[in-house]
Amino acid sequence: MRILFLCVANSARSQMAEGLARAILPKDIEIASAGSAPGQINPLAVQAMSEIGIDISRQWSKPLDAAAPETADLIVTLCTEEVCPFVPGTIHRLHWQISDPSSIGDIATFRAARDQIRDKIAGLTL
């Protein structure tokens, strides 16, 4: 199974989701993330994840086409106010409305987003 987490910049939410999924889900599930307009991983996302023992400092922002979305079994979009990336086809999809912590820019907002994503991943039935 392959899960792809998508947001616009692939700098915070989808990066945290990638790290959390790798830590929580079975090791035989392939996990990736990407964005429709990738930027750079946000240092506050790295900090929020390191606080719970997950290192995402070696992850990087990737464009959607580099993540081979057509090979995903499940695509999870993490957007609220912006237009989420869309991948055509008959891929199973979930949409989690998680506000972009980068728009606020404080560590408490990144922690809140991290915890929301962690709870959603823990509740996945695969």
How many β-strands, per DSSP? 4
Radius of gyration: 13 Å
- Helical proportion? 25-40%
Run of helices and strands: EHEHEEH
Which strand order do you get reading across the main beta sheet?
Answer: 2-1-3-4
**Backbone structural class:** alpha/beta
Instruction: Provide the number of structural domains.
Output: 1
Head-to-tail CA distance between termini: 9 Å
Query: Mean pLDDT, nearest integer?
Result: 95
CATH class: Alpha Beta
The named CATH superfamily: Response regulator
Q: Output the CATH topology.
A: Rossmann fold
Main sheet overview: 4 strands, parallel
Structure write-up:
With 126 residues, the protein is of the alpha/beta class. It has a single domain (2-122), classed as 3-Layer(aba) Sandwich (Rossmann fold), CATH 3.40.50.2300. It has three helices and four strands. It has a four-stranded parallel sheet with strand order 2-1-3-4, covered by helices on one side. The longest helix is centred in the C-terminal third of the chain and has 16 residues, at 107-122. It starts with a strand and ends with a helix. The mean pLDDT is 95.
